[in-house]
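Section 5.1 Outputs to date
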Amino acid sequence: MIQWTSRVYVGEGLRKKKDKVIASINKRRITHDIYCIAFASQPDNLFDIMNANELLWPHYQKMDIRILGLAKGKDEALNLVKDMLMEIYNNTGAFGVREYFI
């Protein structure tokens, strides 16, 4: 099941289309070059970055995924993760991603 944080980080390329993209993902529609940033599925990682179309796979439909950010393209997703990590570190002095968002 897809869940969204109360404050979704959005890259520059999607600022004007945020609501439309979120609706497309929730309705399980195919998107083009949209990347989701979610809590890491592995405990040793901070985030998962995945193409939004991966969420259509049966494997992901059985998992609880909390999306923290959206970006247009992989490069923008990487930059958005960098910005998110800097914000977390500047506000807490650590990299506790889950603690920061929950």
